[in-house]
Amino acid sequence: MTLQAIGLAAFATWNVGAGILATGRLGRWLALAGVPLVVLYSAAALLITQEFWIALTIYLPGVLLLLTGFCRAAGRNQNWFLLVGAAGSGLSLVSSLIQFTRLGINPDYLNHNALAHVVQAIALALIYRGIRHVTGSEFIDARTESVPEFLPTSG
Question: pLDDT at residue 151 above 70?
Answer without folding.
Answer: no
